[in-house]
Specification:
Elements (H helix, E strand, L loop, with lengths): L5 E6 L3 H12 L3 E6 L2 H11 L3 E5 L7 H10 L6 E5 L4 H9 L4 E4 L4 H12 L10 E4 L2 E4 L4 E4 L2 E4 L2 H12 L5 E2 H8 L5 H17 L7 E5 L3 E5 L1
Helix pairs in contact: 2-3, 6-8
C-alpha cells in the first residue's frame, strides 16, 4: 500500500455491477484490478498482489469459496471480503473457514463497502509493539492473531483476533453486542450480528482447554469475557 492507495482485486461476474464498483472505488483512492471469475482472479492475484480482495461467492468456473481456498493454499495473506446474497449461519461459517475475513450482504451501500475495505487494509499498517494479553493460561498476541497455550499456537483469523482483543480490553465487563459491532464492523445490522455470534462460538472452541476462561452470553445484551 503506497501513498495511501489501496490495491483491490475485485472479483465479480456481474459485469455491469463490476464496472460500477470499479469506477466508484477508483474515485476514492483505490487501484482496482477486475476479474470475472475465480480462474481469472487467481491469475490477477499473482500479477497484481493486492492489499485487499473483494469477491462474490456465486460465480462460474470457480466459486468464491473455492477461490479463497486456493488463494490461501498459494500463500495469499491479503484480507478477503465476501460479497454475498446469502445470510445463513452455515454460509457465514463456511466463508470464514475457507479463509475469508469479512462479509458484506447484497444489496449494499457503496459507502459501507469503502469503509469495510479500508478497515481490512488497515491490518497492513506496521505496529511499533506487539500487544499481548494474558487470558487464564493463554497468551494472546493480538497483533499477530496468535493464541498460545503450553507452547502450542493457534492462528486466529483477523476478525477472531479483533473480537477477542476487544473482549480482552474490557475483561470482566458486559459488552453490548451493538457496541462490539459498531467498533469492529462499523454497522450493527442483524446480518453482522450473526457473524459476531459465529466468531464468539469459534473463540469459545479455541479457549476450551482452560476451564477458567469463559465467554459468557448475556441474553439480549451481549457478552462478557471471564478469566
Amino acid at each position: 500500500m503506497k501513498n495511501n492507495i489501496i490495491k483491490v482485486l475485485l472479483v465479480e461476474d456481474e459485469r455491469m455491477l463490476a464496472e460500477i464498483l470499479a469506477d466508484t472505488l477508483s474515485d476514492h483512492n483505490f487501484e482496482i484490478k477486475q476479474a470475472y471469475n475465480g480462474v481469472m482472479a487467481l491469475d490477477g492475484w499473482r500479477d497484481f498482489q493486492p492489499d485487499v480482495i473483494v469477491t462474490d461467492i456465486m460465480m462460474p468456473q470457480m466459486d468464491g469459496y473455492t477461490l479463497v481456498k486456493n488463494l490461501r493454499k498459494e500463500g495469499c495473506s491479503a484480507p478477503i471480503l465476501y460479497l454475498t446474497a446469502r445470510s445463513s449461519t452455515e454460509d457465514v461459517v463456511k466463508g470464514f473457514e475457507t479463509g475469508g475475513n469479512d462479509f458484506l450482504r447484497k444489496p449494499f451501500a457503496i459507502d459501507e463497502l469503502i469503509v469495510r475495505i479500508r478497515a481490512l487494509a488497515g491490518r497492513l499498517k506496521p505496529t511499533t509493539a506487539e500487544k499481548e494479553y494474558k487470558i487464564g493460561r493463554y497468551d494472546f498476541l493480538a497483533d499477530a492473531g496468535i493464541l498460545v497455550l503450553d507452547g502450542e499456537q493457534q492462528q486466529l483469523s483477523a476478525r477472531e483476533a479483533e473480537v477477542l482483543k476487544y473482549l480482552c480490553n474490557n475483561i470482566g465487563q458486559t459488552i453490548e453486542s451493538s457496541q462490539i459491532l459498531m467498533q469492529i464492523w462499523g454497522d450493527d445490522s442483524f446480518f453482522n450480528l450473526r457473524s459476531l455470534n459465529v466468531f464468539i462460538s469459534r473463540l469459545r472452541k479455541r479457549l476450551i482447554d482452560d476451564k477458567s476462561v469463559e465467554i459468557i452470553s448475556i441474553r439480549g445484551v451481549g457478552y462478557r469475557l471471564k478469566a
